[in-house]
Amino acid sequence: MKALRLENIQRSFGGLPAVDGVSLTAPPGRITGLIGPNGAGKTTVVNLITGLLKVTSGRIMVGEDDMTEAEAPVLARAGVARTFQNIRLIGDATVLENVVSGFHRHEKVGMVANLIGLPAMFRERRELEERAYVLLERFGMTDLARHPAGSLSYGHQRRIEMMRALAMDPKVLLLDEPVAGMNDAEAYSLADIFRGVADQGVSILLIEHNMRFVMSLCEHLYVLASGRLISEGGPDHVANDPKVIQAYLGG
Ligand SMILES: Nc1ncnc2c1ncn2[C@@H]1O[C@H](COP(=O)(O)OP(=O)(O)OP(=O)(O)O)[C@@H](O)[C@H]1O
């Protein structure tokens, strides 16, 4: 189990700070919320954690490891996974193939074996499919396994994205607006899955616009506005904090 810890991270674009001295901890077994109005810097924080962007200053710790300078593949190997705000699936491939592609990090058999079709490859493929089916079952999607991912509803596509992230067996999971565009019923059915994942000891950082959803799911929340943390604490504390209300109303 590994906590995610941001220590006073900063990132500027063209001299303007987008993330300005943010410190937070997402402990194992918990769903920690990161909320804030449009342009607050939430996505920039996710991009910094996943190595897509580099911090101007500060430290990013995953467990005891300093990951501040780590490139995206190193972070992935350390067990940092994410979902994206915009769904990124292989639309023509089946649901099953999409989930299997999430196991990529664990594949042992190399390219050559793949090309010449060694039995080891077929065995590994079958093993991965079996593991994919475990995830499909958890998400209630076994009967859709052979459907092209691109033909499914938005809610289902979001689930596939989640499964791909979970296929990496993450220690730290970043959920970037995972229920955006979903109705309440769809969102709350995913909430149960998120709780189950956290219960396995995963550190989840949930970035969300939907306040009600975050409030119902997180014990601890951080609120970002204009790149700075303006509040943190339990849902009740944060929801009643005048600084938070002002930030949301003020746009
Ligand atoms: N690559 C970039 N170049 C220049 N400015 C950027 C870049 N990425 C983000 N910004 C700026 O950084 C600030 C924070 O943006 P960010 O997308 O992180 O906010 P957000 O909280 O995720 O917003 P939203 O909820 O709308 O997705 C914004 O002012 C944005 O214009």
TrEMBL record:
Which GO MF term does the entry hold, naming one? ATP binding
Which SMART domains does this one have? AAA
| Family matches, as Pfam families | ABC_tran, BCA_ABC_TP_C
Superkingdom classification of source: Bacteria
Q: Which SUPFAM superfamilies match?
A: P-loop containing nucleoside triphosphate hydrolases
- Keyword terms, alphabetized: ATP-binding, Nucleotide-binding, Transport
Identify the residues that the record assigns to the ABC transporter domain, covering every copy: 4-251
What protein name is recorded for this chain? ABC transporter ATP-binding protein
Native source organism of the sequence: Ruixingdingia sedimenti
